[in-house]
């Protein structure tokens, strides 16, 4: 009995400590959320108030000139790139797991090795190639450099390897074409890994800052992260609109996280299994 | 002839046709060849030229490398990058492991806590950077008001060359430790519980158990996590840009100019692309060398067959 109360007490203390640490970890998000609705004079009030005394939409209306367009650009590009990446990754994964051909392992090894190469080591020639293709300062630049994913191909291939070959072999004997087998047998079976990869690349491109920074200069083409980064170059700092913009970029990811938590976790664990 | 016979033996009716294989392979291979592989090879060559974005350039041998090591700030940028890498790797791994050990077993609220610590990892680095710019505002920012209210000295944070890199390290650790925690929780749950029972029967205490069961069981994941953290640590860029001054930045007195930022600046602000390519080649060699050393070193401590 005494042992049990001691254990309960210990668990209680552990719980409270964890709660405190979770609060500290999430506090910056709380700051963004509540500061978005404060007017400039209230922003630096101390002690910090979680709910604005006079909530205002002022910070959001300040953003109305550019940010609807930035948000739309981000949505558009993310959807296109994610869809394209799912297509190239899954066909690549299929040809490297369900078909047998000479050089298959060599190509796969090359894909794998490219994951080790730091982005900085390819960005300069990549930029020159894009410029020579007359795609500099267009959305095509981001679509082209984002269409291939070594990680996605790898992740989906690992999953397809676990699907027994008997399914595809049987369909082949029945005379089904490879595209038919891919589309109506293997892809439906790979649904969960496709969602994992979809969430993974959604998050990546929604948040991506470096590529837009390199490839886009026109105001009307900018994505949300690139548009937000303009704040750091401004002479006078208005914190309210910055926090409102940050909130806009954070919300979609949080919503998807709440609904697709399982797939986020799978994505992390999958990246660890080699 | 023999090839077609082999295909028949495999009962592969249509899959031997090269154009069908190509129709599956090309969508990914074109992207890989044009935007990854070709640039990779070009970087290897460009590092030895004075290319500056125009049509005229020539090979200049090792001049870029000599310039980097003997006539520029490059060695100090390299030092900053290593410092950043060591500190962030250490804290991300230790914190990630600590939280994973506490949260691996099901307990009250563990799902919520895991999510709470992981959430920073999914957020836009620019948004996170702006949020911390606000919190660490040098005059009346929240952090300084908090420090002052409990009687601690305030700091200039991102506007002082003494603290700017430290703030960026702290924010990096904040954003990433949850990722490693999730990775480690997966690893811990894969350790066979009977190993713990066996060591209990042998009379091992918690501490001995940690070193003789947990660490060996977790070592493959631990190895992967350290490798990832090192590679990422070398490539930090976004926070440096957002938190210390944008494209002209690099922090007060160059105190946050890490390698990735210097490469960006040289290539895309000053158009010294040949020189920037040589810097990026050095970065790549360092990353590959460290990864290779880890691969060799892992034989000493990573256990793959603990069941």
Please tell me about this protein's structure.
- The complex is a heterodimer of chains A (274) and B (307).
- With 274 residues, chain A is mostly helical.
- Chain A is built from 13 helices and no strands.
- Chain A has two domains: 2-58, no CATH class; 64-272, MetI-like (MetI-like fold, Orthogonal Bundle), CATH 1.10.3720.
- The model of chain A has no long low-confidence stretch (mean pLDDT 92).
- Chain B has 307 residues and is an all-alpha fold.
- Helices cover 69% and strands 0% of the residues of chain B.
- Chain B contains 13 helices and no strands.
- Chain B has helices at 2-9, 18-46, 63-70, 74-103, 110-118, 125-135, 142-149, 164-189, 193-201, 206-234, 238-243, 259-269, 273-301.
- The radius of gyration of chain B is 25 Å and the shape is globular.
- The model of chain B is unreliable at 1-14 (pLDDT under 50).
- The chains are: A mainly alpha (274), B mainly alpha (307).
- At the A-B interface, α1, α3, α4, α5 and α8 of A face α2, α5, α6, α7 and α8 of B.
Topology of this structure?
The complex is a heterodimer of chains A (274) and B (307).
Chain A: H1 2-35, H2 58-61, H3 67-97, H4 104-114, H5 120-132, H6 139-146, H7 150-161, H8 166-173, H9 178-189, H10 191-207, H11 210-215, H12 224-229, H13 239-272
Helix pairs in contact in A: 1-13, 3-6, 3-7, 3-10, 4-7, 7-10, 8-9, 10-13
Chain B: H1 2-9, H2 18-46, H3 63-70, H4 74-103, H5 110-118, H6 125-135, H7 142-149, H8 164-189, H9 193-201, H10 206-234, H11 238-243, H12 259-269, H13 273-301
């Amino acid at each position: 009995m005494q042992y049990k109360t001691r254990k309960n007490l210990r668990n209680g203390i552990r719980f409270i400590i964890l709660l405190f640490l979770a609060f500290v970890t999430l506090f910056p998000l709380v700051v963004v959320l509540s500061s978005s609705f404060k007017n400039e004079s209230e922003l630096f009030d101390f002690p910090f108030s979680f709910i604005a005394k006079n909530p205002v939409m002022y910070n959001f209306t300040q953003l109305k000139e550019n940010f609807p367009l930035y948000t739309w650009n981000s949505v558009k590009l993310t959807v296109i790139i994610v869809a394209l990446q799912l297509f190239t990754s899954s066909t690549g994964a299929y040809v490297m797991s369900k078909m047998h051909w000479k050089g298959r392992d060599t190509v796969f090894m090359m894909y794998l090795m490219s994951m080790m190469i730091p982005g900085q080591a390819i960005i300069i020639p990549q930029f020159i190639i894009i410029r020579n293709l007359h795609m500099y300062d267009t959305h095509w630049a981001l679509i082209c450099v984002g269409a291939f994913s070594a990680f996605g191909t790898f992740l989906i291939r690992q999953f397809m390897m676990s699907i027994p070959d008997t399914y595809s072999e049987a369909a082949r004997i029945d005379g089904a074409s490879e595209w038919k087998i891919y589309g109506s047998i293997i892809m439906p079976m790979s649904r969960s890994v496709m969602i994992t990869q979809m969430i993974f690349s959604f998050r990546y491109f929604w948040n991506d800052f470096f590529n837009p920074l390199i490839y886009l200069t026109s105001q009307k083409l900018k994505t949300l992260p690139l548009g937000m980064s303009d704040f750091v170059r401004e002479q006078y700092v208005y914190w309210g609109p910055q926090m409102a913009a940050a909130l806009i970029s954070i919300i979609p990811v949080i919503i998807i996280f709440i609904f697709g938590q399982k797939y986020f976790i799978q994505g992390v664990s999958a990246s660890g299994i080699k | 002839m023999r090839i077609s016979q082999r295909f028949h033996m495999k009962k592969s009716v249509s899959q031997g046709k090269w154009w069908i294989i190509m129709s599956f392979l090309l969508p990914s291979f074109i992207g890989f060849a044009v935007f990854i592989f070709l640039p990779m090879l070009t970087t290897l060559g460009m590092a030895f030229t004075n290319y500056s974005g125009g049509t005229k350039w020539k090979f200049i041998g090792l001049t870029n490398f000599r310039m980097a090591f003997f006539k520029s700030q490059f060695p100090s940028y390299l030092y900053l990058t290593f410092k950043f890498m060591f500190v962030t790797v250490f804290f991300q791994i230790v914190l990630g492991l600590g939280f994973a050990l506490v949260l691996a077993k099901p307990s009250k609220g563990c799902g919520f806590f895991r999510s709470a610590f992981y959430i920073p990892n999914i957020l836009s680095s620019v948004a996170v950077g702006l949020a911390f710019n606000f919190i660490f505002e040098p005059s009346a920012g929240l952090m300084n008001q908090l420090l002052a209210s409990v009687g601690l000295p305030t700091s200039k944070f991102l506007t002082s060359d003494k603290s700017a890199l430290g703030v960026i390290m702290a924010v990096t650790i904040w954003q990433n430790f949850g990722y490693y925690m999730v990775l480690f929780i997966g690893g811990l749950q894969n350790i066979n519980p009977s190993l713990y029972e066996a060591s209990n029967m042998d009379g091992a205490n918690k501490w001995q158990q940690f070193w003789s069961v947990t660490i060996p069981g977790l070592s493959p994941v631990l190895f992967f996590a350290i490798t990832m953290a090192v590679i990422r640590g070398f490539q930090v860029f976004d926070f440096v840009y957002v938190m210390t001054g944008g494209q002209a930045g690099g922090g007060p007195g160059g105190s946050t100019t890490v390698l990735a930022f210097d490469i960006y600046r040289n290539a895309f602000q000053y158009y010294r692309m040949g020189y920037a390519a040589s810097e990026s080649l050095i970065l790549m060699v360092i990353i590959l060398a460290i990864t290779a050393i880890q691969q060799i070193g892992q034989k000493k401590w990573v256990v793959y067959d603990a069941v």
